[in-house]
């Protein structure tokens, strides 16, 4: 049965039940803005995004291959041989122990000449070793270094770089002769920090003039694998390995725990019992970790010696753990996906359901990012969809709040004229209690009327009559509201009230009777406060029974009311109070015994049955009521016997 009526439609309209396209359109535009920001993030945004996703690294359980070894010029080495840089004959002695290594990368630049004899000793120690020397992209211009440096770089450069978009430099520092001549290949040592000065990315190569010079880790991999790094239109490859690099030819390093790298101090190479076979077929990098040399890098997993940045690339390449970063159109797809996942929250009216969905979305977002990193080989900067999701939730909650507020105002506007303020607020807090429409239910109806007021009004001017009625209606209406009643209407000097609608009341008959008692007591106070007028008298009829309650009228004018036989009987009981009181007075004057001295409140049978055990009631002779066939049982409520404590106890809180 369709129970929604015109009032419901009006409330929905007033409540702002507008198309959901408004917040969705706003968030679609927000997604476009966030996506655009993700393409070229400002420094602060980039730092926040990285800090959030850096937590992935704590879940990395992989360790670098034991074939990768860091020969560390560490604090103990500096204590042994003195402050860095050391005499080159010392280094020569140590390098002679690396003869069995597969590849030796030097994260050291011998850019300045020292004693010729010592430089020659180092050059001789390096000669014949599979060593890669370092250059640093700074210092003098390439053009000023001579053809021999250029051709050495040419031999070290990538042959298939094409038109790759790489970082560029026309300046470099290179090892001095004769050390450079003893080194087969050169490689760049530069690593660049992100916006927050943490090192996460690793440039594969640099343009130095017209030469694509690989970074040290790349050069070590080329020598170890005998494969070249190739830039193609379909991506960057080393052999059959596709390397997920960004537009500038940099990859995101997948860091391991600092203590998981195989390493040994440089002094170990100098000890008499050191066996060169220990490093047989190992990929070795030699560098400095001594803090005073400042070759430390701030990374997401702590301070890292610079040489480990290069070794980490080789390890990532070897175990295939270089993560592919999600950006560009892929990031747009992620944002669109979360737009679809968030949209159902706009349909959820219960806050805890929305909060559960929000928690699920945030947990799912982080879980997707972490799962993609651990098992999918992808890196999702969850900051951007997370930022969008926060804005979406804020927008959605504001949208729902405005709808709720508009709905509350609509309910308040619709019901405040005939419901107690406390009841209206309860309806707003718990709208599920509201049952509107043409609905059949059991009600208690209360009708009141002032006796003889029509004749009296003919002797009063309009202003005095309106003033008197307003003063009278104020406490009467309050009495209805106090005991959970609904004011249906004023009819001249009469009042109609409904109990058990629109909000349910399990004790509606009792509460209607309490309202009637309160009304008569308030009338006594009113008469005492207005001695200039003849005292007013009132009759009240109360009846309980089935009726149809809802909104009656036309589409442009309607009112909330009740209709049915129970309503008519309540009205007839109120009319009968005058006649019954007159009959009681007449019988008393003739000396007859009368059941009760007054009958200001008359109850129908159902009302009497509901309250007879709690309120003093007296049965009166059954009588015919206008419009009803037969005789109906009626009862007088002896309201003067009710104590104030009972009225106070049952007031609506």
Automatic annotation (TrEMBL):
One of its GO terms (biological process) is intracellular signal transduction. Residues 444-574 form the Guanylate cyclase domain. The chain crosses the membrane at residues 326-343, 355-376. Gene3D superfamilies: Nucleotide cyclase (3.30.70.1230). One of its GO terms (molecular function) is adenylate cyclase activity. Keywords: Membrane, Transmembrane, Transmembrane helix. InterPro entries: A/G_cyclase, Adenylyl/Guanylyl_Cyclase_3/4, CHASE2, Nucleotide_cyclase. The keyword Transit peptide does not apply. The keyword Mitochondrion does not apply. Pfam families: CHASE2 (PF05226), Guanylate_cyc (PF00211). PROSITE patterns: GUANYLATE_CYCLASE_2. PANTHER family: ADENYLATE CYCLASE, TERMINAL-DIFFERENTIATION SPECIFIC (PTHR43081:SF1), ADENYLATE CYCLASE, TERMINAL-DIFFERENTIATION SPECIFIC-RELATED (PTHR43081). This is Adenylate/guanylate cyclase domain-containing protein.
């Amino acid at each position: 049965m369709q129970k929604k009526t015109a009032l419901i439609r009006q409330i929905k309209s007033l409540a702002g039940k507008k198309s959901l396209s408004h917040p969705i359109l706003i968030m679609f535009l927000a997604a476009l803005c966030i996506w655009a920001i993700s393409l070229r993030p400002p420094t602060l945004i980039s730092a926040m995004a990285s800090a959030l996703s850096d937590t992935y690294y704590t879940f990395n359980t992989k360790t670098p291959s034991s074939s990768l070894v860091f020969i560390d010029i560490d604090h103990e080495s500096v204590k042994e041989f003195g402050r860095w840089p050391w005499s080159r004959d010392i280094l020569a002695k140590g390098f002679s122990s690396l003869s069995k290594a597969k590849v030796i990368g030097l994260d050291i630049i011998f850019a300045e000449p020292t004693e010729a004899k010592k430089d020659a000793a180092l050059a001789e120690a390096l000669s014949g070793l599979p060593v890669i020397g370092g250059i640093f992209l700074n210092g003098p211009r390439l053009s000023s270094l001579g053809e021999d440096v250029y051709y050495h770089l040419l031999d070290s450069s990538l042959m298939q770089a094409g038109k790759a978009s790489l970082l560029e430099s026309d300046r470099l520092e290179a090892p001095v002769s004769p050390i450079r001549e003893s080194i087969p290949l050169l490689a760049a040592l530069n690593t660049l920090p992100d916006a927050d000065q943490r090192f996460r990315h690793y440039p594969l190569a640099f343009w130095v003039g017209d030469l694509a010079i690989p970074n040290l880790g790349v050069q070590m991999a080329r020598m170890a694998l005998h494969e070249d790094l190739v830039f193609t239109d379909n991506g960057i490859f080393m052999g059959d390995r596709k390397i997920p690099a960004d537009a500038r030819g940099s990859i995101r390093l997948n860091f391991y725990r600092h203590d998981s790298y195989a390493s040994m101090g440089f002094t170990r190479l100098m000890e008499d019992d050191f066996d060169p076979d220990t490093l047989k077929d190992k990929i070795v990098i030699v560098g400095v970790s001594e803090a005073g040399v400042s070759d430390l890098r701030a990374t997401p997993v702590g301070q890292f010696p610079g040489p480990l940045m290069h070794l980490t690339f080789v390890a990532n390449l070897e175990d295939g753990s270089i993560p592919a970063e999600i950006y560009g159109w892929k990031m747009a797809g992620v944002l669109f996906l979360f737009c679809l996942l968030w949209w159902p929250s706009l349909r959820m009216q219960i806050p805890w359901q929305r909060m559960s969905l929000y928690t699920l979305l945030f947990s799912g977002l982080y879980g997707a990012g972490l799962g993609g990193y651990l098992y999918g080989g992808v890196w999702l900067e969850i900051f951007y969809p997370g930022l969008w999701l926060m804005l979406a939730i804020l927008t959605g909650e504001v949208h729902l709040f405005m709808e709720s507020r508009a709905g509350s105002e609509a309910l308040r506007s619709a019901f405040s004229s005939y419901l107690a303020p406390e009841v209206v607020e309860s309806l707003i807090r718990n709208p599920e209690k509201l049952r509107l429409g043409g609905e059949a239910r059991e009600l208690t109806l209360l009708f009141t009327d002032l006796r003889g007021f029509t004749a009296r009004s003919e002797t009063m001017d309009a202003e005095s009559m309106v003033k008197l009625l307003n003063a009278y209606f104020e406490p009467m209406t309050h009495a209805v509201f106090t005991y959970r009643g609904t004011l249906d209407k004023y009819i001249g000097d009469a009042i109609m009230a409904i109990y058990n609608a629109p909000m349910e009341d399990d004790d509606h008959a009792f509460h209607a009777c309490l309202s009637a008692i309160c009304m008569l007591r308030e009338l006594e106070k009113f008469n005492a406060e207005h001695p200039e007028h003849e005292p007013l008298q009132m009759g009240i009829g109360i009846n309980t029974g089935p009726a149809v309650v809802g909104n009656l009228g036309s589409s442009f004018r309607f009112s909330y009311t009740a209709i049915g036989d129970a309503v008519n009987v309540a009205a007839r009981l109120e009319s009968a109070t005058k006649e019954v009181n007159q009959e009681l007075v007449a019988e008393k004057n003739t000396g007859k015994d009368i059941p009760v001295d007054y009958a200001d409140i008359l109850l129908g049978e159902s009302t009497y049955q509901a309250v007879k055990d709690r309120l003093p009631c007296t049965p009166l002779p059954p009588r015919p009521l206008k419009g009803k066939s037969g005789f109906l049982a009626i009862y007088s409520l002896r309201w003067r016997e009710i104590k104030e404590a009972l009225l106070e106890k049952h007031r609506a809180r």
